[in-house]
Amino acid sequence: GKVRAPTHIISTISDDRGEEPCYAGVPMSSIIEQGYGVGDVISLLWFKRSLPRYCTKFIEICIMLCADHGPCVSGAHNTIVTARAGKDLVSSLVSGLLTIGPRFGGAIDDAARYFKDACDRNLTPYEFVEDMKKKGIRVPGIGHRIKSRDNRDKRVELLQKFARSNFPSVKYMEYAVQVESYTLSKANNLVLNVDGAIGSLFLDLLAGSGMFTKQEIDEIVQIGYLNGLFVLARSIGLIGHTFDQKRLKQPLYRHPWEDVLYTK
Ligand code: ACO
Ligand code: LMR
């Protein structure tokens, strides 16, 4: 009989061996001819299925809203400094991307994990937040450097508005909003931030689309797919900042002494 040599790699998301490449079994010509968007491509390559239009639209909205947030945020700052040190596009981009993590842009997965666990266990926002405090863990998805009760994050409002009129259920988002009401009673800047809004709403997307089993949802949350949305989105802005600095022929950046507290 046939002897099959063992393979060193298993891959399940794409195939380039035929006449045309396929993403999750969908040939490139269908992707183009049927007018798929980047949300559909993400849904094929990350989730290995075609999600309904409102889901792929939501993914696209996340990408657009998180593409940039000005030059002062951690990621853009690193990218700008790197570009001004004369480094190439990829170096400037990854230098910015490396700042994405638990404090900046990379709190989406943990927000989804903690909101899901607390909501599924029917914890009141008080119980959830106070329990996190006892454990010494900041609530992922809550808090912002410049946004506050009186200066809400427009991105969060836009995501919530879209979901309220397009998702079958916004249970997790409503839970996150209740958590926000409680944290806002403690301090003005403890708003639901864009990471928390995406984290909670993606739980609603996964549960409400009817396209994922409970086990698949747990796996997506546990592996941590969702920070990928911010990484992908912010790459657009970081590439823009690199081009901007090069176009402006900006010199090497050196931080001013006056802005450093030199002390013993
Ligand atoms: N949960 C509970 N308490 C908090 C939280 C939170 N998420 N954030 C701030 N606090 C409280 C704490 O008491 C903190 O004191 P501590 O330093 O003793 O813990 C106090 O507020 C002051 O915190 P600051 O460090 O001054 O807050 P800062 O403005 O620097 O932090 C940040 C902003 C980093 C976003 C913070 O709120 C945080 O860690 N949030 C959780 C992570 C997160 O969601 N990051 C994504 C932000 S959105 C984005 O990056 C696109
Ligand atoms: C962002 O999207 O980069 C921000 O929410 C973080 C910030 O500090 O403004």
TrEMBL record:
Organism: Eutrema salsugineum
Assigned protein family: Belongs to the succinate/malate CoA ligase alpha subunit family.
Key words of the record: Acyltransferase, ATP-binding, Cytoplasm, Lipid biosynthesis, Lipid metabolism, Magnesium, Metal-binding, Nucleotide-binding, Transferase
GO BP term, example: fatty acid biosynthetic process
GO terms for MF: ATP binding; ATP citrate synthase activity; metal ion binding
GO CC terms, sorted: ATP-dependent citrate lyase complex; cytosol
Subcellular location: Cytoplasm, Cytosol
UniProt subunit comment: Heterooctamer of 4 alpha and 4 beta chains.
Heme among keywords: no
Origin: domain of life: Eukaryota
Protein name according to UniProt: ATP citrate synthase
